[in-house]
Amino acid sequence: MPGGRRLKVALVGGLSLAAIWIAGIALGDRVPPLDSWIVGHLYSRPRTVPSAIAAVVSGAGTVIALALLLATVSDLLRRRRAQGARLLARHAALLTACLATMALQAVFQRPGPPVTAQDWTYPSGHVTLLTALAFTAFMISRELTAAWRATVLVASTATLVAVSAGRVTLGEHYLLDVVAAVLATLGVGLITVAVLNLTRNPAPLRESRSAES
Q1: Structural domains of the chain, count
Q2: Nearest CA to 144 among 70, 191, 208, 210?
């Protein structure tokens, strides 16, 4: 894969990281007007039906994202037996790098909504975890069929949006927190993808199947 493409991927990742750093430093402890409005109008109080639904969605979302990743890994090992272990090692490094983004909460130490018991919520650790699982699953799915890629993309995006909305309505995070989590995790992920040269075009599966037979 030409180095120019890797450089572009790394640049996009760097810009994503820069955006959350600038926002975190510029805002400090201040709350954007939109986040204040959301807390005042969309917050679901404990022991209400909306809060119960949001809590279920948050928990189920993590399970779905993990199941999607494991299913993608399983299909990779089945379809690309010769390359599976090497590919998985590189994607494991990608997942580890994405998960490391959680440490940014300790860097910014930005307080969350007044209704949450959490000390620091920027970026959202929950959404960081989901984004890391989803992004890694999608990168693995590039080694598989177009149908797998579409399934992973649609399922992971829908799950991420639903869980993010749930975290915001539960008052666990500001909208800024979940957006920052997605941008930061994707930023680190894209830079790692460029470093590991995972931007290359995978070999067609039909060729892989013929080689195995």
Answers
A1: 1
A2: 208
Average per-residue pLDDT for the chain: 89
Residue 132 binned pLDDT confidence (cut-offs 50, 70, 90): very high
pTM for the predicted model, two decimal places? 0.90
* pLDDT tier at 82, thresholds 50, 70, 90: low
Dist. CA 213–CA 159, nearest whole Å: 37
Q: What is the pLDDT of residues 110-130, one digit of tens each?
A: 999 998 888 899 999 999 999
* Helix, coil or strand: residue 180: helix
Q: How far apart are CA 89 and CA 198, in angstroms?
A: 12
Calpha distance 153→199 (Å, rounded):
17
For residue 26, what is the domain's CATH number?
1.20.144
Query: What is the residue range of 163's domain?
Result: 3-212
Whole-number Cα distances in Å, 116 to 45, 120, 159 = 11, 10, 23
Q: Are 99 and 132 in contact (CB under 8 A)?
A: yes
